[in-house]
Design a protein that fits this description.
mainly beta; 18-stranded antiparallel barrel; six-stranded mixed β-sheet
């Protein structure tokens, strides 16, 4: 652990005790307005288990959350996060995350997570501005486990296992009115019915790590060389940004959610029409050859491969239900997805590339000449069914959550990174000790088809109401050509010190 982390932790311990929630007086607010500022200061140190494994810098993060009640019915919510260190290996410098690029290597960085105005009445609720959404009823402990209907907020994939769900999400400009329907007089009709409509006028992409960073997918890395048509080709690759869909009304996203209570169960129905927030990649290649009489194959061949994000328009319809029985909460959620993009193993794609025609005259001159390279599809579009079921409750003093998620890719004839029927099981087991000041947890993920798994034990100790310390270990195992197993060299132990105010 770097020597600076313990010193910072000592300072936090020393000054945290007198700190409490901070009410503010804002000069621009009307009389009677009330503003509260809270947040967290967090230090994270990740240690790899093997010197050959990918490295991650120590990280410091400060998040501020402002809630301003301008009147009894009007509220402003703002949220911003500053981060230094972490997963970027070759940061371009300090900067503010924008809403138009997938690859943004910034450190220190500033991110505006939320900034919206909320108007509340007894009949409707309206939110306008930069917002984060959490739709669906299933649990999302990791970035790999996205609820089928939680599609409005893209995510950051820099630290998919340690970062909390709300911190992973990216705020999006949105107009979101909610109408509360009048109560029904019939006991056969649902109660507490509300209809939410969301309009995202512009597309905001996910944030994805660069090739030299810890959580860039190994199966999206181009092999150093490949044997193509009997020729050994040396490969160079880069991950580059691609233009996001133009900021026009034709590329807006629309979503609706109808929710209520029926027969003691919470239910919701969903519709989504917009760009998929889930990452999807594609690639192009250019080849170069020259005559080399000293080479056994008489040719020197190399290729330059560019990997870049692609953005697909999808539609989904879905629903969820949650019901409490015998002290446990049971959940079921699913969605039918139209025309989603699914990625193939890029290493397999590059290994099967086709080299175009070579000019013999130019070859005999000894000059290097460009030749076209044809890659098979890296990204294919398929319909799919995403669904899951789970439950949670207490067994004695131990909290237990069990959940199963499944992705069924329909009418597919090619090998994808995920299986046509991908089934995953996840669990959280938690128990408190010392009047709940010490919390022991075990998080787990297991994939049947790829035979992969994640085991994540951790201990969190609350020093007082403002400081907690967490130590944990993440072990990843599985087939190296599976969605999660490809990260099996990313085992990590970590220490996190957090100061809440």
């Amino acid at each position: 652990m770097p020597a600076s982390l313990p010193r910072v932790a000592v300072l936090v311990f020393a000054f945290a005790a007198p700190v409490s929630a901070m009410p503010l007086r804002l000069p621009f607010a009307p009389p009677g307005a009330k503003a509260d500022l809270d947040g967290k200061l967090e230090f994270l140190d990740v240690e790899r288990t093997d010197s050959a494994n990918p490295y991650q810098n120590p990280q410091g993060k400060l998040r501020l959350h402002l809630t301003t009640d301008l009147s009894a019915h009007v509220r402003f919510v703002g949220d911003m996060t500053g981060t230094a260190g972490g997963t970027p290996r070759n940061a371009s410098g300090a900067g503010v995350y924008d809403l138009g690029h997938v690859k943004q290597e910034l450190s220190p960085s500033l991110e505006f997570g939320e900034a919206y105005l909320q108007i509340e009445t007894t009949r409707f609720d309206l939110r306008v501005g930069l917002q984060k959404f959490a739709w669906g009823t299933l649990d999302e402990p990791y970035a790999a486990e996205q609820a089928p209907n939680d599609l409005l907020s893209p995510q950051k994939f820099y630290e998919p296992l340690l970062e909390e769900e709300n911190d992973r999400k990216i705020g999006v400009p949105a107009l979101a009115p909610t109408v509360y329907l009048p109560p029904s007089q019939s006991r056969y009709l649902p109660s507490d019915v509300r209809l939410t409509f969301v309009w995202l006028p512009v597309y905001v992409p996910y944030l994805f790590p660069d090739q030299d960073e810890r959580w860039y997918p190994p199966l999206a890395r181009v092999p150093p060389e490949s044997d193509v048509m009997g020729i050994t080709v040396e490969n160079q690759s880069s991950f580059v940004n691609a233009p996001v869909p133009s900021r026009t009304l034709n590329h807006s996203t629309y979503a609706a959610r109808l929710s209520g209570l029926a027969a003691g169960a919470d239910f919701a129905l969903y519709y989504f029409d917009g760009f998929d927030p889930w990452p999807s990649l594609d690639a192009t290649a250019q080849g170069f050859v020259r005559l080399d009489p000293l080479s056994p194959q008489r040719l020197d061949a190399r290729s330059e491969v560019e990997v870049f994000p692609v953005f697909h328009h999808i539609q989904t319809v879905g629903g969820d239900v949650a019901y409490r029985v015998f002290g446990a909460t049971l959940r079921l959620e699913g969605a039918y997805v139209f025309d989603r993009g699914y990625v193939r193993n890029l290493q397999d794609v590059v290994s099967s590339e086709q080299i175009g025609a070579v000019d013999p005259a130019l070859l005999l001159s000894g000059e290097e000449q460009p030749v076209p390279i044809t890659l098979s599809d890296v990204n294919v579009r398929r319909d799919a069914v995403e669904w899951g079921a789970g439950g949670d409750g207490f067994i004695g003093g131990t909290f237990v959550l069990l959940q199963m998620n499944q992705t069924a890719v329909l009418r597919n004839q090619v090998n994808l990174l995920i299986s046509d029927m991908e089934t995953r099981f996840s669990t959280i087991v938690r128990r408190g000790f010392l009047d709940d000041r010490l919390r022991a947890e075990l998080l787990g993920l297991y994939g049947m088809q790829g035979v992969y798994g994640v085991a994540h034990p951790r201990l969190t100790y609350a020093v007082n109401d403002h400081i907690d310390v967490r130590i944990g270990f993440v072990a990843i195992a599985g087939h190296e050509e599976s969605v999660v197993g490809q990260y099996r060299r990313n085992d990590e132990g970590y220490v996190r010190v957090r100061f809440l105010f």
